């Protein structure tokens, strides 16, 4: 190794300001790298899908491959860091990984996709083989929790020693908590509104709560907004539930500061950012034990876990938090301590630097 900074190119789908979880956390990495430059690394970001029409995705991918080539020719790339989801992301990143191998650039796969397991299992043999080859040739594989480590190890047994767990992270809240003068329980959902995130079950659960002014909810995100609004109206919940649509980072920070409970009753996840953000803000979290959620949520200690698809269990958990404010406070405080100890973005960036450095050492 030389004394010069380690040059890392990070492949992201949409780029800065993208609405997906991968882009959100990479935006945080970008911010940390800019705010606290580290002499050990020089990080560059490049998109493989791009924002806007999917029809332009091949152009973005071609430009990404060209940039990678130029960086290689000029000696300004040591490692390619590939953020991987599923479906179109897999198709594009398979090409990027193959191109990196041709150029002699070691690469890291960073698996984020919540639907990746289903996508791989349902892929035809040729595509499945291409995915396996991509993982088999990776210098390191970053996963977000133990369940994903087991899955990849079973799919490609030879890579087990190269898998490292780096859970998602979030910065400390930028806004202090704001108390509600009415004393109502403030419930917050952040994510893509639809069936995968369990929003229909959440709405059903809210309809089971007493309409007595002791609670209110915000369901924020894009997706099936109008359909959900119609269901809320049908259930006479319009006075209790608000749907603002997609919200940006500043609005998310404001919503977190003005909430008591973060709820995410998903059917599929990897390790959801909204849960980590809720923990960072000291909220009581109600979630489902899917993906790597159980790695950070211990039922009754750092949050409450409910079975996927169980509206009655969701309603019961909310009612419990409504009736027992001390439990709500304890869960939030425990979650906040766990975030500070293991899920803070500065620690996350430091861990990435360690993985990059280990990768370069192994390939020297």
From TrEMBL:
Q: Record's Gene3D superfamilies? A: Glycogen Phosphorylase B (3.40.50.2000)
The Glycosyl transferase family domain covers: 183-336
- On the tree of life, the source organism's domain of life is Bacteria
Pfam families in the record, alphabetically?
Glyco_trans_4_4, Glycos_transf_1
InterPro entries assigned to the protein according to its UniProt record, in alphabetical order: Glyco_trans_1, Glyco_trans_4-like_N
Query: Which intervals of the chain form a coiled coil?
Result: none
Q: Start and end of every Glycosyltransferase subfamily 4-like N-terminal domain?
A: 34-168
PANTHER family attached here?
BLL6306 PROTEIN, GLYCOSYLTRANSFERASE
The protein here is known as Glycosyltransferase family 4 protein
């Amino acid at each position: 190794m030389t004394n010069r900074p380690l040059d890392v190119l990070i492949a992201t789908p949409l780029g800065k300001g993208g609405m997906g979880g991968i882009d959100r956390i990479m935006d945080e990495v970008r911010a940390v790298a800019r705010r606290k430059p580290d002499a050990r690394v020089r990080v560059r970001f490049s998109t493989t899908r791009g924002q806007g029409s999917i029809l332009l995705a091949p152009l973005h991918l071609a430009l990404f491959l060209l940039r990678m080539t130029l960086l290689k020719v000029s000696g300004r790339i040591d490692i390619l860091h590939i953020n991987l989801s599923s479906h179109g992301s897999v198709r594009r990143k398979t090409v990027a990984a193959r191109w990196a191998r041709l150029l002699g650039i070691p690469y890291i796969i960073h698996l984020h996709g919540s639907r990746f397991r289903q996508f791989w299992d349902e892929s035809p043999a040729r595509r499945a083989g291409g995915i396996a080859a991509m993982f088999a040739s990776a210098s390191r594989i970053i996963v977000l929790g133990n369940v994903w480590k087991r899955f990849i190890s079973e799919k490609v047994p030879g890579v087990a020693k190269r898998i490292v767990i780096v859970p998602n992270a979030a910065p400390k809240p930028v806004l202090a908590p704001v108390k509600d003068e009415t004393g109502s329980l403030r419930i917050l959902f952040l994510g893509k509104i639809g069936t995968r995130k369990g929003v229909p079950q959440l709405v059903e659960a809210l309809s089971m709560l007493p309409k007595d002014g002791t609670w209110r909810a915000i369901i924020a995100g894009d997706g099936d907004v109008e359909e959900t609004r119609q269901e809320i109206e049908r259930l006479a919940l319009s006075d209790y539930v608000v749907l603002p649509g997609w919200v940006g980072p500043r609005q998310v920070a404001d919503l977190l500061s003005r909430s008591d409970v973060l709820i995410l009753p998903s059917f599929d996840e990897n390790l959801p950012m909204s849960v980590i953000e809720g923990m960072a803000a000291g909220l009581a979290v109600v979630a489902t034990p899917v993906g790597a959620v159980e790695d950070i949520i211990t039922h009754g200690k750092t949050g409450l876990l409910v079975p996927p698809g169980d509206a009655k269990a969701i309603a019961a958990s909310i009612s419990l938090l409504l009736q027992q404010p001390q439990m709500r406070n304890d869960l939030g405080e425990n979650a906040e301590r766990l975030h500070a100890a293991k899920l803070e973005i500065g620690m996350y960036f430091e861990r990435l630097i360690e993985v990059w450095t280990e990768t370069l050492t192994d390939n020297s």
